[in-house]
Amino acid sequence: MKSVLFSRFFILLPWILIVIIMLDVDTRRPAPPLTPRPYFSPYAVGRGGPRLSLRRAGPVRGAEKRNESRQQPQPQPQLPTIYAITPTYSRPVQKAELTRLANTFRQVAQLHWILVEDAAARSELVSRFLARAGLPSTHLHVPTPRRYKRPGLPRATEQRNAGLAWLRQRHQHQRAQPGVLFFADDDNTYSLELFQEMRTTRKVSVWPVGLVGGRRYERPLVENGKVVGWYTGWRADRPFAIDMAGFAVSLQVILSNPKAVFKRRGSQPGMQESDFLKQITTVEELEPKANNCTKVLVWHTRTEKVNLANEPKYHLDTVKIEV
Ligand code: UGA
Ligand code: MN
Question: Does the CB atom of residue 185 touch ligand 1 within 6 A?
Answer without folding.
Answer: yes
